């Protein structure tokens, strides 16, 4: 079944490749392309040049180190499906332009996968298997091998000697700063690979999921999109539109995590989310180590 | 505790209260006629002040709550701490300060005799920094010291304990 799905997906990519390429260099039908091939029609929008006429809608709140300059990206809108950006925004380099630490990304992803795991596999030991209290035959003289119980691990139907024992927890916690670094690396990687898009707000004209899918297709945002916003309430239209769609998901900013960012191809942040993320993630670079848990009040939290 | 449990049962409450005579005397009762009243009940003409919550004393607790962020490094200090220069030095590498505003040079001892100096938080061309550190330590010690560059974590390790020399050298550079 896997092979069929691979062939099916590859056929779809092949069709897209054939349509974008010239007629002479047609892809042969028996060529199997990998399923994670990036769509060649996905245009990479060039970074904003220093002399654009568009206004800077947001600059960094915290002061930057003297040797670093903020990263600039376009701010788009979801309201009208045109391709014109509204303006520019400045992003803090210590959140959106950190060096790509793939080892930290791997650590955080594996931690997210495993720390919730409780494996309930359990086998019975020779003492737990029903029966086997009596010595099956006398020690000497019967001609058979000596045994003490019919449930020893040597016997068919006997207990397992070194099997999995009871619910096992795989819980562990990575240090807070490692998890924070993982988020920063994921955001920087998304920005560097042109998969991060900033949007002014999540207002859309209709609650129709079709509108969203067409918008995403037209803007070449990719197969799957993760939309992040700050606040307890989202506009109704976007909630209704994303409810039906499987590959377009919306989460609050507190729920942003490395696994979701890697699972979805594109990441859409609002300006408020950018401000929130910068504030929270940069605090870890200047904070003391905790005297007591950070959930309790400090004078400036 | 057991008394409070009893008092919660509404059936018993009236009986207990009346038994302990804790209700204020009714106007026609013999207690009122004799001129007696509970100490907790106010006199007929007396007005007692109501309970008010005052937040004026909160400041004594609030000033004890610690901050969570390290304050920005002050200018002139008598401890010998030197702030970084306001403009970064014109070199291909940059060494940031730690969160306590110190130079990130640390020493390590393993197996009792393996001395290592680590320079962390390097940005930019770490190989240029390695070249400069080797040249500087050759002047200081006269030996070519083994160094290890980790490009992933952007750290530089040098064999031997040279934290004091390296810190002074980096301070003079303006980091």
Automatic annotation (TrEMBL), chain B:
Pfam assignment, any one: Img2
One GO-annotated biological process of the protein: translation
GO-annotated molecular function: structural constituent of ribosome
Entry-linked InterPro entries: Ribosomal_mL49
Alphabetized UniProt keyword annotations: Mitochondrion, Ribonucleoprotein, Ribosomal protein
Transmembrane portions of the chain: none
Source taxon at top rank: Eukaryota
Compartments, record wording: Mitochondrion
A GO cellular component annotation in the UniProt record: mitochondrial large ribosomal subunit
Similarity comment text for this entry: Belongs to the mitochondrion-specific ribosomal protein mL49 family.
Protein name (database record): Large ribosomal subunit protein mL49
